[in-house]
Input
Amino acid sequence: MNQPSVLEQLFGRPKPVIAMMHLLPLPGRPLYDRAGGMGRIVEALFNDLEALQAGGVDGLLFCNEGDRPYPLRTDRGPIAAMAAAIGELRPHIRVPHGVDLLWDPEAAIAVAQATRACFVREVFTGVYDSDMGLWQPDAGAALDYRDRLGASSLRLFFNIEPEFARPLAPRPIGALAKSVVTSSLADAILISGPMAGAAADVTHIQEAKEAVPGTPVLANTGVRIETVAATLDVADGVIVGTGMKRDGYTWNPVDPERVLRFMDAAAAARDRAG
Output
């Protein structure tokens, strides 16, 4: 009998649809709404949570998307606020969830462990010329930190084509995927477009899958109702944010009707795959 994949272990099915839970700007960040405070952040999250779970998504990914401009090391205020917001929602969360704290892997791991998440999405490897400056994550330090927190069961999803950045020494996607799985112990590989809401290159997904056949490869950005079927024909799953938002705009609330249409298209694609 074949061993269930990481995605099947986490989400109970192959080719999961993981929906973004975008947080409004957090305390300590430039766009934080002091008048609305934490109450407004939690209320917006709760409304998105209700729409996404009612629409049948397989998993959730909490992300501090509103914290522009994104730092490479996160202050204590946003870390504490993100953990508190997710903690308030925990009694209402019915599907597996993960954490992404842009762009600080150790902070994301800490929040994930505190909120009993089952996975983290981050950029763990590489050196990049980015909008945030020279970007050099340290996978070894991140995995050591996970171990110190007693979070060894927390799965790590490696974004190997990060948004808002380009690698200083580009490598073929297949070679890069094989390297991060072999040397940096990635549990899953994510392929992204150039920014949130921009489609990933499907040929890159295919190249990564061929290089690491035992590791899931997911489309990380830009999947929409019109493209989810074609994407799932290649990818092992999708992470979707903008495609489920009102008017297809990243900074809008989740649109319940778009969630239903997206999940109907995903279900049809998964049925075809058998």
